[in-house]
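Response to reviewer comment R2.3. The reviewers asked that we include at least one raw input/output pair. We reproduce the pair for Glycosyl transferase family 1 domain-containing protein here without editing.
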Amino acid sequence: MKFLLFTLEYFPFKGGVANYYTNLVYYWPKSSDILVLDNNNNQLIRKKGILRWLPGFFSFYRFVKKNKIKHVLVGHILPLGIIVFILADILKIKYTVFLHGMDFSLALRNKWKRFLTKLILRKAEKIVCANSEVFKMLNKFLDQEGKCVVVNPGAKDFNFRSLEKEQELKTKYKLDNKKILFSLGRLVKRKGFDYVILAFKELIKSGNDDLVYVISGKGPDEEYIKEIARKNIGQIWSDKIIFTGEITEEEKWTFLSLSDIFIMPARNISGDFEGFGIVYLEANLASKAVIAGNSGGVSDAVLDGVNGLLVNPESEEDIARAIRKLSDNKALREKLGQRGRQRVLRDFDWIKQVDKIYQFLTK
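Raw output as returned:
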């Protein structure tokens, strides 16, 4: 059977959704049986104009006919699900819808979108939810018992360590003899970096002089987050809170290796929430304990007291307590980090995750 992944986000596009789909195709059991139609060359969605998704309608029709596709994996319920819904009977194809988080949340925001979403989901052969939070949302919206499964993302093993690179970053950012709190992600409010800074302020007041906070990534709220640091940490903020900007894959793993604690207390802001958080798994693969916000689909990735600590993402006091708890207890940090690594290797192997999807679709 020929499958088509129909998606707006795919490598080299960055982000959790693109990562999910890129690995889905890479680890597909029969690589010759899956093709990809994506929007990396703007062939599906126009940047401007009315009915911006209309090119996707024609691209999809031609692609399915040419390649004799039998089953479509719909990567984004709106607008791509509309195209597939309309053409499914004409092209005599089945389709499965994938849901991640914000994609589904946005699809429920008004009556018209909810109507379209209901039509698309009812006609779908199967539904794959990337986390249990979306599964709960789906069941509240529409009873689809029996044709839905939860399959979390996987993670690739931490398989190298460069002592030379570690020393380079320690020297560049003055990290020698420091306890390193590390965050990595798109700089947007929902990731919770602003609340970490507010919690960090209290930790500095109580004498944690050796603690530094490294934030890696870029995003639309970068200036807002830096302003929070300037206002709350004072003149020493640039020594205590280090913004690295975007980093390479090698630098990512090196910072994870150097860090003592990984933190990202993500929160839900008007339906925009963390669907899972692959970076939590990556931190665990580096044997690091994590601190995460108890919101969205994060609880699939982080089990409180097993591989990290879950906190109220809107409480700087709760975040500060968690940081202090791990900062002051090396044995606990190491135990959570080691448990986390074992759990990721056991439960989040990409080959196993993709095989779950394949077996679900073909049984």
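Residues 3-154+349-362 form a domain with the Rossmann fold fold (CATH 3.40.50.2000). The chain has 16 helices and twelve strands. Further pairs are available on request from the corresponding author.
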